[in-house]
């Protein structure tokens, strides 16, 4: 095994994580902290203090996954859930810190999809949709064995496929998007409106999944509702893209068969073209570290996963 | 200008067309005939008699667009609208006829999309969806300046994006697909059921577009119905793929503003992510010869448009 190492960074609204990843995709060293609610420079100092704990020998590059939106590939980030960073020049700051090393950054869901393709559930397949279902519904696409960036680095937004044209308004300004139905908070809110834990101020999608597993009828119906919306969107994506594998991760995917069974039924109901029948819809494999593994792939697998400067 | 020339073939249910295409994408020589309703060898002889009329000097390759489905890239074709060919080894036959030359074949809608990217409405853009709306609704994808084939050569099937989950059954076996609503014959049948030309045995989408242009209310409503379904599907594709250009061709696209105005309204209603706002949805430019131009691009533009053996 080579001595080369990549420094990987995962910036999210809940946590900041950094690690050293080896060429096989193993996370050797790992540090994390809650994302503090502070101003831009305070947040940068928090990230730097995490980075200070990592060894810097044998580094060949820095890979980053960060919550969107961002200017890509220039890497000025404005993560929806991190109000302190608006147009923050994350890529430039990291280039200053790690002089001479390539620094590469992409949206977090894209990074997770790359991780699953490189070392997870999509390994060895040429056409993969990686999805993250949690407080939002995001994704990334590897087609023809190469990451698809789109015109502005935004390819993969499966959360904004329209699954119910006359349906609920979406935060994006549209209507009936997958995300408006299937993101965790929307699903919990729907169940509360139907009478589930109606007395609580806040009930989470995690509570919902737990209650569904115990057979609570509204919770079960909510998971079915999410599964159906996901099945429609994945059928559309499969017909449009002729995929091999759809790998589904994120907190909501922990719900297991409560989610995957209705998802699969609806998917098979709509994905009827002959070529769509061989697609495998599977849980993601990498879990919490998918973002770090994917970020490392922007360096180790640059021929497939990095098409920018 | 180089002396190189490509022989291009366009096999459809209505017509067979062949031509010589120069490196600039101009069709120099063009021959066509109606597709005869004969057996496999009879059809092959018809194609050969067309090919016999073409000059063969300076040929560097043969490109083919053919109605699907087909085994790809091996090129055993079973065009839905040509019952005489089922598993017909078109690529192999052409290789025997044009010994030593590369012969490359793809689905007809993919070929048209490639033509529009190479020399038509998508010229100079890196992320293009090309669509053909006629008796079916097909398409092809160029992403990151490269043709997307999918796992089995079937990427681009935008006609089977789900736009109305509880809607009409589709020939594919699914429900609520774009094609089930917006393909010409379905649209004409819908209008007849609503009372338009109800006394006629058969009325065509061409009649429908003409009547819509004259202000017939049911015909206008039919075009709006198609436009809305198209707008939803294109919004979903744009969000998923972060496109630059959507180029729309095929007979139905001749309807002009009667179709494009409701299409654009619905598209803008649903495509609300900031990155989706710069997309241009435009009529295709190449018309009847798009298939020949695209077929030639499999040879001239092999680095971008041909990823197989």
Automatic annotation (TrEMBL), chains A, B:
Pfam families the record matches: ROK
InterPro entries: ATPase_NBD, ROK, ROK_cs
Gene3D superfamilies named among the record's database cross-references: 3.30.420.40
Entries under PROSITE patterns matching the protein: ROK (PS01125)
Family note: Belongs to the ROK (NagC/XylR) family.
PANTHER family reported for this sequence: N-ACETYLMANNOSAMINE KINASE, ROK (REPRESSOR, ORF, KINASE) FAMILY
Name of this chain's protein: ROK family protein
């Amino acid at each position: 095994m080579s001595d080369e190492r990549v420094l990987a960074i995962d910036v999210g609204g809940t946590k900041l994580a950094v690690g050293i990843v080896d060429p096989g995709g193993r996370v050797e060293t790992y540090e994390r902290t809650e994302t503090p609610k502070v101003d831009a420079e305070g947040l940068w100092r928090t990230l730097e203090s995490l980075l200070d704990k990592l060894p810097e020998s044998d580094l060949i590059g820095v890979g980053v996954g960060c919550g969107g939106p961002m200017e890509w590939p220039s890497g000025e980030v404005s993560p929806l859930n991190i109000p302190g960073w608006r147009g923050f020049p994350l890529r430039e700051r990291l280039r200053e810190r790690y002089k001479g090393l390539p620094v590469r950054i992409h949206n977090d869901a894209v990074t997770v999809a790359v991780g699953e393709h490189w070392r997870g559930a999509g390994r060895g397949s040429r056409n993969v949709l990686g999805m993250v279902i949690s407080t939002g519904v995001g994704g990334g696409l590897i087609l023809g064995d190469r990451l698809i960036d789109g015109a502005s680095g935004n390819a993969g937004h499966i959360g904004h496929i329209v699954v119910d044209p006359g349906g609920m308004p979406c935060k994006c300004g549209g209507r009936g998007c997958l995300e408006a139905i299937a993101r965790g908070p929307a699903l919990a809110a729907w169940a509360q409106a139907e009478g589930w834990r109606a007395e609580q101020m806040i009930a989470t999608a995690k509570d919902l999944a737990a209650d569904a597993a115990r057979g609570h009828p509204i919770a079960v119906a909510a998971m079915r509702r999410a599964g159906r919306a996901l099945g429609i969107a994945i059928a559309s994506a499969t017909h449009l893209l002729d995929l091999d594998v759809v790998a589904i991760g994120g907190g909501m995917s922990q719900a297991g068969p409560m989610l995957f069974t209705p998802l699969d039924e609806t998917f098979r109901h709509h994905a009827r073209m002959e070529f769509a029948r061989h697609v495998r819809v599977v849980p993601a494999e990498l879990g919490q570290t998918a973002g770090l593994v994917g970020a490392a792939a922007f360096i180790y697998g640059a021929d497939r996963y990095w098409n920018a400067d």
